Every structure is written in C-alpha cells, then in structure tokens.
Hints:
Layout: H1 3-17, E1 19-24, H2 29-32, E2 37-39, H3 41-50, E3 55-59, H4 62-71, E4 76-78, H5 87-90, H6 94-102, E5 107-112, H7 117-121, E6 125-127, H8 132-138, E7 144-148, H9 151-161, E8 166-167, H10 180-189, E9 194-197, H11 203-206, E10 211-212, H12 215-224, E11 229-233, H13 238-245, E12 250-253, H14 275-284, H15 293-308
Parallel strand pairs: 1-2, 1-3, 3-4, 5-6, 5-7, 7-8, 9-10, 9-11, 11-12
Helix pairs in contact: 1-14, 3-4, 4-15, 12-13
Amino acid sequence: MNKKILQQKIIALKQAKNAVLLAHYYQLPEIQELADFVGDSLELSRKAAATDAAIIVFAGVYFMAETAKILNPTKKVLVPDVHAGCSLADGCRPDQFREFLNLYPNHKVVTYINCSAEIKTLSDYVCTSSNAVKVINAIPKEEKIVFAPDKNLGNYLIKETGRDMVLWNGSCVVHEAFSLEKLIELYKKHPDAVIIAHPESETHILKTAQYIGSTSGMIAYIKSSPDTKFIIATENGILHKMQQEVPNKILIPAPSKEDNTCACSECAFMKMNTLEKLYNCLANETSEVLLDEEIRAKAQEPIERMLKM
Length: 309
C-alpha cells in the first residue's frame, strides 16, 4: 500500500474511532504530517491530559505512551510499535534504581520524563527538558536532590541552578553521538551559523552552543532569531517541523560520530514507528498500553506536580 493511500486510511480511521494522534518531533515526516499535534515531551503530556478523544495513538517511544496512559486511565492508548524503547528509560531499571536511592535516603527524587512508569512511582517530581530548571528551582535550597536518569541533563541543571545533585549514570545514545571534531569542522565551513543544542547533549557540545533548550524551545528560538543559518544538535527528525516553521532559514544537522547516510544523529527507536504500523495498530486497536492501576496512580502524582507548576 503506497504512502498516500495509507495516510488517507489512517485519517478515516481517526475520524471513525474518535482517535487523536500525538507525535513527537523525532518521528518520520509522514507520521508528523498526520498528527493532530506534534510536540516535545511536555507539550505532548499536556495534550494527552487535555484530550477528549476515546483513543490516543502515541507516535513516539514507549515511555511517552505510558505517560499518556498515566494521565488518561479510562482511555485506550495505542502505540505503533511496543518495542520502540529509549536508552534512558531502558538504562534505569526499577530494581537498580531502588538500590541506588537507598544510598540517599534524605533526598528528593527528580526524574526526567524519559523513564518508565515504575521509575516515576519512585519520584517526588517529574520534569522535562522544557521545565527542568523551573522544577529544580522550585525545590527548597536546603533539600538534597537525586536526579535521574540523564547525567548530561543533570550536569546542565547543576550548572544552571547551582544545586549540588546526585546523578544517575544514564545518557541518551542519540545526544551522545555528536562529534565535537566534526562539529568544529562544520562550523568552520559555516562561520555565520548559530549552534543550538539539546541539554541531553554532552558538556563539550553544549559549550559550543549559543542556545541550549528543549525541542520546542529550539523551534521558538529559531523563529524569533534574526539569524538565518543554524547548526542543530538534536535528533534530525526535528528538522521537518522546524523547516516548516522557518522556510527561509538554513538548517544544518550537527554531525554524528558515526559514518551514516545523513551524517546526523538519528534515534533508531523513534524511527521504528512506520505508517504501516500506525495503520495496523489503529485499525485493529492492538499494541495497547496497559498499566497496573496502583503503579499508574502512584506515577501520576509526580507528573501532576509538574503539570501544576
């Protein structure tokens, strides 16, 4: 079945089933084109909490769909591919994290939203890259903090907030794939470009950036900037939506350490979702996200604290 026919069928299914399609910026362009809303983790969390659709189809990675289910216990939440994981979420197992927290009994626990529902149950607060600084600053200065699972985001937050936090040793494989040497070479070819980076990137990449922010923050920055050329250090899927927002500006993906076809950094998990998988999960209402109610309710508490901020 070709792309256009599949897209038409998915649109018809969404209408017939009162379904909403939420897609992350890192999804394939053909999926973003069909989405009722494209955004970052914070924006998608808000949309999931506010929707009145009967079915939520979440085109992203699994922890994002879990978050949608946490916030919508009575709605059916579907994912195109249940195996679309995340190196951050997969690298922070609940049993290991419990043992880690036992070492720091008097600490507030702040977890990046890129973690499983079970990890969220062990948290006092959840944050996203959009609001992490705000969340950390809202915790009284006398409180000690454990931050997980992203050490790179954690190091960035320590610098921005001045808080001395204990960090879980996790990282995003996509944002650790950028090559500083290649980035410097690229910048020499485009000295008029502005480097912008996601805070999940390593410190040496962040030091080169004139702007550091979430995916939605990057888009907002480029839209408001008088500059016309940008080198972008995040997953290259964002370029689709970004270019739509700024059609007259030049967007260049930051180079990866790997010798891949686009010389950029791609999330293999995000790209596991395809139009065909999206159609099948909606047509058959398969790949449903199901959570134990006790886990769901407990995981909701730190997310609600975040959303109220």
